[in-house]
Amino acid sequence: MPAPDRTSGREREPGRGTLSAARLRTGTPERAGLDPGPLRHLVQEIRARTEGGAGERMWAAGAVVVAGRGPFIAVEEAMGWAVRYGAYDETAGVRVELPPEERVPMTVGTPFDLASLTKLFTAVAAVQQLERGTLGIDARVGAYLPDFTGVAEHGVTVRQLLTHTSGLRPELPLYDCPSDEARLSLLRAEAPVTAPGPTYCYSDLNMLVLQHLLERLTGRGLDVLIRDGITRPLGMTSTGFGPCPRAAATEDQRRPWAKADRGMLRGVVHDENAWALGGVAGHAGLFSTARDLAVFCRTLLVGGSYGPARILGPDFVELLFTPPGLGFALDQAWFMGELAGRGAAGHTGFTGTSLVLDPATDTFLVLLANTVHPRRRATPDNGPRARAGTWVARAVRAM
Length: 399
Known about the structure:
Layout: E1 3-5, E2 10-12, E3 19-20, E4 25-26, H1 36-48, E5 62-69, E6 72-83, E7 85-89, E8 94-97, E9 104-105, E10 112-113, H2 118-132, H3 149-152, H4 158-162, H5 180-189, H6 204-218, H7 222-234, E11 240-241, E12 249-253, E13 263-266, H8 272-276, E14 286-288, H9 290-301, E15 305-306, E16 309-310, H10 314-320, E17 329-330, H11 333-336, E18 345-348, E19 353-358, E20 363-369, H12 383-397
Parallel strand pairs: 4-6
Antiparallel strand pairs: 1-2, 2-3, 5-6, 5-20, 6-9, 7-8, 10-14, 11-14, 12-13, 15-16, 17-18, 18-19, 19-20
Helix pairs in contact: 1-12, 2-6, 2-7, 2-10
């Protein structure tokens, strides 16, 4: 049995001096180098906020959590419901539950609408082009997209798109445009509202512009770039752009709380702009399972390889995680809890999704929940995400 190298997250093969990116496999917490006690608390808390929750205490209709260290998955649990509600009653202000026989229980294999976790895959696709030398990190976007006059005239760079320092506003109402051409015209003309460079402003528009840049550069759609460059090589067979009929339900999407009137959504993208763009967008649109996302985390933790597949070289993975991070958020305690502080990287999604990977301890946490089912909250509750990260961090420290 190879002896684990905890620092790198890889295993040294007998008789060889190199390290190989071992595939994930299920193991006990102890085998993964984790204390089972904090991990039990992690599962109990999420279960209490799904299956046992009521009213404001109920965080989500259901959830799936996968956590591990090195090549071992130490926790893989599903709880609650993938589909629990048929509607939201605006007049009474209550969730309308489906009859028990019509509900769909959550399983560890349930796909979720990833929402903004899609941005991580767009970022990796961009960094792959950096590695190939076809794209420059500090090149001006206008060099690739001269017709995107808003960003071209202000000298926005690729790095600024990836770090949310372009000055672009958070979003545009593309969902209200009458045609694809009108949506494209609006995006092309959109100029930064603040000077590019000094100020962080999280914006979906950064990844939408980056999507157009990558598609222009390669002559391939973003869905193809992600499939051929990331998910297919890694064996992430449950990851892709929708529709995805088996996915956990999201929202009874109606005005005034939403931006479009679409009814109860399941298997089609929740984000209104991604929907208006046909379901494939740089900022949202991917569906995936917790196990597939654990593979994605594992790949990045070991420097860009998984088994025989390689999607990035170690230096370019390191570039992704160099402050302030390219696409990835770094050391954000509000959703990472005590995992934050030593270079942890991750992201959240509006539908209730999140992932964190911590190179310092070789750990990962994927927490997927349908928190907007059947209706989004006015203020998202990130407490369960942060506490989940804290329990994983304490499981490491306890060893």
